[in-house]
Design a protein that fits this description.
Layout lengths: L15 H6 L10 H4 L12 H8 L9 H5 L6 H9 L3 H9 L5 H7 L6 H4 L2 H4 L5 H15 L14 E5 L3 H12 L3 E5 L8 H4 L8 H14 L2 E3 L10 H6 L5 E4 L5 E2 L12 E3 H10 L19 E5 L3 H12 L4 E5 L11 H9 L3 E3 L2 E8 L5 E14 L5 E5 L5 E4 L2 E4 L3 E2 L3 H5 L25 E3 L2 H4 L4 H20 L5
Parallel strand pairs: 1-2, 1-4, 2-3, 4-16, 6-14, 7-8, 7-14, 8-9
Antiparallel strand pairs: 5-15, 10-11, 11-12, 11-13
Helix pairs in contact: 5-6, 6-10, 7-10, 11-20, 15-16
The chain binds flavin-adenine dinucleotide and iron/sulfur cluster.
Flavin-adenine dinucleotide (FAD) binds next to α11, α16, α18 and α20.
Length: 486
């Protein structure tokens, strides 16, 4: 069997059989005990040698399942060939043809359900580590200082307002500015990046990466304005009629937290995961005392986080890092139904997070000062699948018991922020208040207004939001270049 040292960055000389014998290279990770006390990145990245060894495993399928399963169709097979040939910058350029934020997606995409889920190698062994290769390529490009900014077309004289600076807004901005339109992004918060900045913690996605991507967009000519709450500071109609934007792309995400609606949820010590993560990530409360920002004191406390998705997992791992005595994830289904990425679940377990599965809080109890002290939880069992396709959890009668809890963080989901919908009368929404937009064109019911990302689909994934942003950019460009018909 070939070992890593026998591989060179050249045309792959190995037979298909030999390639399939190479074991998957696993990425080095920070020590679980050390990392559970700091916000350092958990995954340490591939070396060039790891990268060469992993790229050598690809059998260059004629009909690559990896590309088929990638939501934005990154030409993965060609990318891997370029990596193997040693042309990392060409590989980066190839990825950027379809994916504007590869250093981000290489870190946060649920690859096991996307590209790697479609990789033929996974049928008999382990899929190619596509996410890790993508991350290597993007990091190499960034640190090489050779990131070639794309050519910007001559000015069209048209201008586009983008509302929201998450992955949907940023990728639309990048594409539109290249086509010669003036692009201004309006963001409600004081920093740019959406969930990439305020939701996903530093230990999964270092902020320097997001900021680097934003700087590139700035260099390309994208204008950013923070602390503007569209719908309050200015309405969509005012942007179009008073400020003369020719088109608006609404990419405001789904940031409104959903609560459990159980007794005691008002007690001091019960918070939404969204607020908790925003305070820690955006205001850098984790750098206390250098950064004297308000954060819920988790030190030496019993913290529970309710939910089983990425948000809940990020919150419970953050609480651990803030010094929680116990950090427990409480989820009403079993591990098999957990929507969080498999890697996050593995990392959480290594970091000492306790999992209370098939458990559901039904009441929070407090002391005479209104501070949370306990949670009443019940045990659940799974019955028939519900509308989401997952088996429905049902309470086991007589199974209630009390948990000592100082801090409870609710991470059971989010929904659409209603502000723009309520201040833009002719913008159609569905019964959950998400904006209705055409799947192909991202056009809404209001002329000149497009929408995409989580504000249309509900909470989804970074890569899907980015794909929607790019689709919107193409559609807005067509609209601005045509006769204006709608
Ligand atoms: P967002 O990223 O939500 O950005 C919307 C932006 O619009 C925000 O900055 C918001 O402040 C701004 N905004 C809202 N209203 C207004 C207004 N009225 N005026 C001006 N600005 C406004 N996906 C993955 O693929 N992998 C993961 O590992 C992953 N982890 C996640 C972890 C957490 C904690 C969360 C919350 C989500 C996670 N997701 C993950 C989901 C992913 O982040 C989202 O699907 C994606 O960010 C949606 O992008 P978006 O651009 O539509 O919206
Ligand atoms: Fe390579 Fe796997 Fe894609 Fe085939 S499916 S081209 S082996 S990455």
């Amino acid at each position: 069997m070939p070992d890593k040292d026998s591989l060179s960055l050249a045309k792959n000389p190995l037979s298909l059989k030999d390639r399939m014998k190479i074991p998957r290279t696993h990425m080095a990770e920070a020590d679980p005990v050390e990392r559970s006390r700091s916000f350092q990145e958990v995954n340490l990245g591939f070396s060039i040698l790891d990268t060469a060894a992993e790229a050598a495993r690809c059998i260059e399928c004629a009909k690559p399942g990896c590309v088929r399963e990638c939501p934005v169709g990154v030409k993965i097979r060609e990318v891997v060939e370029l990596i193997y040939a040693g042309d990392i910058l060409a590989a980066a350029a190839k990825i950027r043809e379809d994916n504007a934020l590869p250093a981000v997606t290489g870190r946060v995409c649920p690859q096991e359900h996307q590209c790697e889920g479609g990789c033929v190698l996974g049928k008999k062994g382990e899929a190619l580590a596509i996410g890790n290769l993508e991350r290597f390529v993007a990091d190499y490009e960034r640190t090489s200082g050779q990131l070639g900014l794309p050519t910007i077309a001559p000015s069209t004289g048209k201008s586009v307002a983008i509302v929201g600076s998450g992955p949907a807004g940023l990728s639309a901005a990048g594409d539109l500015v290249q086509k010669g339109h003036r692009v201004r992004v309006f963001e409600a918060l004081h920093e740019i990046g959406g969930v990439l900045l305020y939701g996903i913690p530093e230990f999964r996605l270092p902020k320097v990466i997001v900021k680097g991507e934003v700087e590139n967009l700035r260099k390309m000519g994208v204008e950013f304005e923070t602390n503007v709450v569209v719908g309050k500071s200015v309405t969509i109609d005012e942007l179009m009629h008073d400020e003369h934007y020719d088109a608006v792309f609404v990419a405001t995400g789904a940031g409104l937290p959903v609560f459990l609606n159980i007794p005691g949820e008002h007690l001091n010590g019960v918070y939404s995961a969204n607020e908790f993560l925003t305070r820690v990530n955006l205001m850098r409360a984790y750098q206390f005392p250098e950064n004297d920002q308000p954060v819920y004191d988790c030190r030496d406390k019993n913290v529970i986080v309710v939910g089983g998705g990425n948000t809940a997992m990020d919150a419970v791992r953050t609480a651990r890092r803030l010094g929680a005595r116990t950090a427990t994830l409480v989820y009403r289904r079993s591990a098999a139904e957990m929507p969080a990425r498999a890697e996050e679940v593995k990392h959480a377990r290594e970091e000492g997070i306790e999992f209370r599965l098939l458990t559901n809080p039904v009441e929070f109890l407090g002391d005479e000062k209104g501070r949370l002290t306990q949670a009443r939880v019940v045990q659940m069992e799974l019955s028939e699948p519900d509308a989401s396709g997952r088996r429905r959890p049902v309470e086991i009668q007589g199974s209630a018991n009390l948990l000592p809890v100082d801090v409870a963080i609710i991470g059971v989901g989010t929904t659409a922020n209603p502000l723009i919908q309520s201040t833009t009368p002719d913008l159609a929404t569905n019964k959950w208040n998400y904006i209705v937009a055409d799947e192909k064109t991202t056009r809404t019911s209001k002329r000149g207004v497009f929408a995409g990302g989580d504000i249309v689909t509900g909470g989804a994934r970074v890569i899907l939001a980015m794909g929607a942003g790019r689709k919107a950019a193409a559609s807005i460009h067509d609209y601005l270049s045509g006769d204006g018909s709608w």
